[in-house]
Specification:
Elements lengths: L2 H7 L3 H18 L1 H35 L3 H51 L8 H45 L3 H29 L1 H15 L4 H6 L2 H38 L2 H18 L5 H42 L20 E8 L9 E8 L4 E5 L6 H8 L7 E6 L2 E2 L5 H6 L1 E4 L10 H6 L8 H11 L2 H5 L22 H15 L3 E5 L7 H14 L4 E5 L3 H4 L4 E6 L2 E6 L1 H7 L2 H10 L6
Parallel strand pairs: 3-8, 3-9, 6-7, 7-8
Antiparallel strand pairs: 1-2, 1-4, 4-5, 9-10
Length: 607
Amino acid sequence: MNKEEKKKADQSVKEVFGNIFFMIRLLFAASPWFVILVAFDGMRNQISIFFEHTVGIGYVLEAAEFGYPFERVAKFILILVAGITTGMIIAVFSGDYVAEKERPKVRQKIKMLLYEKARAVDLACYDNPEFYNEQVLAISEVDKQIDKVMDFAKNTLAGITVLITTSIYFFARDKVSILFVVVSFILTFIFNKIYNKQNYFVKVEGIPFTRKRDYIKRVYYLNDYAKEIRLNPGVSDVLFKQFEEANDEVYRIEKKYAFKKWILGFVKSYLCKDAFSDVLFISYLVYQSAVLHNLSFSTVAILYASFGRLREGLRVFSDTYPAACESSLYITKIRKFLEYEPTIVSDEDLECTKNAKEIELKDVSFAYGNSENMLLENLDLHIKPGEKIALVGYNGAGKTTLVKLLMRLYDVKSGHIMADGKDIKHYEVKSYRDSIGTVFQDFQIFAGTIRENVIMDVSEHAYDEKVRAALTDSGLIERVDRFKKGLDTDLTTEFSKGGVNLSGGESQKLAISRVFYKDAGLMILDEPSSALDPIAEYQLNHAMIEATKDKTVIFISHRLSTTRIADRIIMLENGKIAEQGSHDELLNKNGKYAQMWKLQAGAYIAV
């Protein structure tokens, strides 16, 4: 771990408690009763233990030593048992029933906050490895930190209860005894804090390698990779080597901190605890009782037992606070993630219509992150409403980057993108994106029904006639009608035994049907027919022309037979427009597009 990371791990008490209270506020907002009952149970339990083990046993020992009347002792015990029993009944109801019933709800609500934020963060965040690592850590750690924070709150209140009740007893019987507890507590506190920081270093330093191990694990259990692994067994050698290297790195990190953790563990567990309780404190009590006769035998017994309880109560702070410091480091990640404010926001929150869009790019330049390597540079382009535009060019020309800018998944570095005469930054982001229908080249099929995969929403919001029309336009309806459940057929077999795995071409048709269903004013299709056979491609092209006749359409395709249906073809090269015109116009120019056509699709020339 570098010095900057270790510096981040140094936290003030204010920062630690600020993060803990931030998490408690989240928990309280999710379920007030959960927080209250868990906290109450921590205090009630220690009050019950104090009366049973300190007051109760102390009274009985004194009664035996000094000969109290039996009736008096029996009455005391009955009252004590009644009180403890009442407390246990309350604990069973509040702690074991209500709190445990609320715990899953709390986890769900807080995870939903994280998922909502993950949906809202800028796409550029996924290009930032540091942010992505912290996002993964935040989501993966949240359940554990919910439990740890509640344990901290419960144990802290329990410790305070022990401290108050037992300290009163100590001050009443022997004030000097409490000094032994304080010294043991301070030493344990210091070494525990250092020990838990080492645990955090191990966790954070190992994240890149544990992520790689998790990736390899996914490769072997996800269906996506099954065929490739079986047909190319050599790839397993590559993965096994990567797994071993990642595992070796995790082992190296563990080994790096192992000796220091062992020394710290020995000091905090034995020297700071047993040396004070089993040697020094016992010697002091024997001296006070046997030599000075200041303490009775019953008082010595209860003080020794109470010393253990008070020490354990204070260890809540010596153990729990360092653990809270460790939790705070993770909560910092969770908090940072939840408090992230997207940079792609609206200037004026204008509503965007779903009519065919007029698009204009004015002097647009763009590069990912802080790179000075512009993928698009000083680009000017005007697309009329209802125009069908094809973007072509070799890999890296800037085609996909351009459409990402049009969808406002990223913002331009300079220049302006106009939609219907207004800068797209003026439109409310959701409204603007809702006016665009998109199929990505790397589209995904979700584990849900066909209907849900078409509408990309819950089934209750679907219009089945419209869903069927979209599937008809994409050429998939006949296949869907052959399934027993039709539109309710589950896709993927990950969660449903009766699920269906579509072929590559069928999956692409399903993705295209999403665009037809959305009926947006601007349709962007990134390689819409790459997985289709020539006949299916021909049918799709005609269906697409018919379904989008009153829409503005931009599609990217490396298969130039598809680009022939466009009103205008834009050829990009190195982030700039190299050529533009209709298919015939560009062929007549005999330029770069014509060269690409001849190289790739010479068979079409005679058509």
